[in-house]
Amino acid sequence: MEILRWLQEWYASQCDGEWEHVGGIRITSIDNPGWHVAITLDGLEMENKQMDVVRIERTDDDWIYCKKQDGCFTGVGGPGNLEEILKFFYQWATIIHKECECNYYL
């Protein structure tokens, strides 16, 4: 539950009257089955922060794929990987150096 608390606090700190209206955070299910997380980065401090693509395939139901593209962090994963996607976003978002290689994993 700590990651949800952090995400809620991070979300609240980004809300400026505009950002939350143009995208914000979207968490939806996909038909693989699994999860899709999209977090709009346009206008945020981390908008220009580098991120390597992350692809982890353990099994058909245990996988994640995260990337930053077109001003958005996108993470998809298996039915049990939502928390893992959010933790990866947390790690990437809280790295001090803006220009880094984020090709590590939790």
From TrEMBL:
It comes from the Bacteria. It comes from Paenibacillus rhizoplanae. This is Immunity 53 family protein. InterPro entries: Imm53 (IPR028228).
